[in-house]
Amino acid sequence: MAVTNNVTQFIFTGLFQDREAQIVSFVVFLPVYMATMLGNGLIILTVNTSKSLSSPMYFFLSHLSLVEICYSSTTVPKFISGLLVENKTISFDGCMTQIFFFHFFGVAEILLLTVMAYDRYVAICKPLHYMTLMSRPVCHVLVFSSWLGGVFHSVVQLLVTVQLPFCGPHVIDHYFCDLHPLFKLACTDTFVAGIIVFASGGLIGVILFVFLISSYVVILVHLRNQSAEGRRKALSTCASHITVVILFFGPAIFLYLRPSSTFSEDKHVAVFYTMITPMLNPIIYTLRNAEVKIAVKMLWRKKVSLGGE
Fold first, then answer.
1. What is the count of structural domains for the chain?
2. CA 191, CA 228: separation in Å to the nearest integer?
């Protein structure tokens, strides 16, 4: 049966309807987005120019920062620019594109966080086999698999969405095209579509979250047999990773581990993993990692010395 689609564009309600609140949001979130770009860009530059950050952990960290830049750029610029206009619109094709890349980069980040947890597990629990298990070719395969997993997940989400008929309401109660609020506008029952989203999004997220937490429980148990200095260094690195995992997974699981009903709080919860977490990640990893801080200082000194010549 042909899909009936009379909708050519959607209108976002945004985070707030009050004009003053929108102006305040613009003043707040523009610097947040700029900090996200600057912080993650700095990590990518530092890792790729510093010889002391050549280990797999930093290789994965640079890719995580790249994903954060792309992930945040999928929704935030459109949201920020929409704060300055009265009608916040997006074309149907633009909405589908946003859905694809939002889920692509989101799942790629989830898989990269899982890969980083595996890297820490091997480094701490199997140190004698670390160089073999985490060789550079293996690291490239793991990163490629993370990106590929994101593509596969997004294709599934997009195929589910484009099959839905949209023939009437076109106001999305959100600040970007997300699946649950979009499903509410479909001119058909979206129960099956909601189940698919639940299975491919929320359920997989919970499984990976449990895997991540379990891996760190194993790591913490294993650390009891290490020296105090080795334990301190490992705990510092693991604490940064666990913090990022909780900040990202917590809101995402809340939104996707349920049927396709929506709550008015959803778009406010989404702010955490679309804007706040991508900004905090470079801060968390830099402040808690001495090697990264030293490499950033050396990069800055090199820049200053070149600028003074």
1. 1
2. 53
